[in-house]
Amino acid sequence: MAIARSGYWVTGSNRRSAPLRFAGMDNPPANHSTTRVLVVEDDSGYAELVVRRLTRFGFEVTIAPTLQAARAELDRVFDSIDCLVVDLSLPDAIELEAIDTLTALATSLPLIAHSVTENRDTAMAAIRLGAQDFVRKGEDRGERLARAILFAVERKGFEAELIARAHRDHLTGLANRGLFDDSLARGIASARRHGRELTIAFADVDNFKRINDVHGHSVGDLVLCEIARRLLASVRTTDLVARFGGDEFVVLCVDAAGSGTTEPLKSRLEKALAAPFEHPDGEPLRVTVSLGVVSSAPTDHDNLSAETILGQADQLMYDAKQSRRRFQARRHEQEATEPSVARRKG
What we know:
By secondary structure, the protein is of the alpha/beta class. The chain folds into two domains: about 5-165, 3-Layer(aba) Sandwich (Rossmann fold), CATH 3.40.50; about 175-345, Alpha-Beta Plaits (2-Layer Sandwich). The protein has helices at about 45-55, 65-75, 95-105, 120-130, 145-165, 175-195, 210-215, 215-235, 260-275, 305-325, and strands spanning about 5, 10-15, 35-40, 60-65, 85, 110-115, 135, 195-205, 240-245, 250-255, 275-280, 285, 290-295, 325-330. The longest helix has 24 residues, at about 145-165.
């Protein structure tokens, strides 16, 4: 059944298998035949048994005999895997090392711990490390493992949906302040580690209160959504656009050193934000947006902090608002710039 090839035992799928049935479960979830499972198992005999059992239920199964092979397989075909089933006795992993490594490497994938012995402490430790379930080997003819896989995939998908909701602004659909703060911290760490250039753009709607007062909050919401749409259309999929709060927006870009992101980004955002806005009734709507763009080169990263670069972009945006130039950009400066509370609106 299994074929050794480049460190993996790779199998096909049984698309013509009978409908999946479990004891006590009359209506299994639909689309089970499309569930793709990476089983990390070094015992070739048991691996073949797992393949036979799971393909009988309609799963697609790939076997990786070591932790190293599993990591390589994830790097190669991450998007083609729906669930991980991981043996706790791999030759290149000590105790729960495989669970710890793979849950960190594939945070979006559900993982099931699999072992020949059922030790409560070990099982609970695996769950605490991120495993969705613990299944003892040879417990039945595969029904328990198959059911655990399906339920794990469903639970993980639901968790991902909840996390996405928690990290998104409910009005614009952009990333929210919490997700932006986390992303900026990771972006700074990545810029330092890989010598990359980091750019922040800070945008604020001018006299937004007047828009709400004159045209109503529903029109104000439409303006915010339109600005969000224009910002997203002006950046790459690798960049992050967030609603920072109220009528404020931020853009985060991390690029290779010397890529010259600042001016091109400023030009794209300026063009997008300067385009005319329309009232829902078709009449022109006066909306202006002030923008500050700050970029930090790798040589500046030793003294770079989230508060410093964000504060400088915010201050630059305010300077643009006060000077009525609307759009300004510059390099990151070494000294910290604290945004003034008194000038937050204008």
